[in-house]
Write a structure and sequence with these properties.
Elements: E1 2-3, E2 6-7, H1 13-20, E3 30-38, H2 42-62, E4 65-70, E5 77-81, H3 86-94, H4 97-100, E6 104-112
Antiparallel strand pairs: 1-2, 3-5, 3-6, 4-5
Amino acid sequence: MVLDGILTAPVSGATLQADARSPAEFYSANMYIALLTYTAPETEVDYALPDHSDWMRKQFTKGIFLVAGKGNGRADQVILTRSCLRGKLDAVLASDPFVVQRLARYDVIEFTATRTAQELLAINEAIAS
């Protein structure tokens, strides 16, 4: 499967769930901001919204997504993810019903967290400073 020019392999939900809860040392220090942009008219997107909402809920339950909300400007939706392998994230994003139905696409910003608020230390091993 190709997601924004990146070849990804399908990953089972059980694998993603297990990986999302693995020890922090399994993950790279990289975190991601996923920017969802609609590629179809919003009237078409609205029909797939219930499936997308269920998919989002599953990603939060699995511990992959940390924060999501409506974008202001460049993206229609913004998602902050937990540290994980980029290939795993690409596979998760490729399974979004919006992407499967070619109603939207994701752009991913990868960053290395070097500071973390005390309240967020449980989700990122970077030392708060």
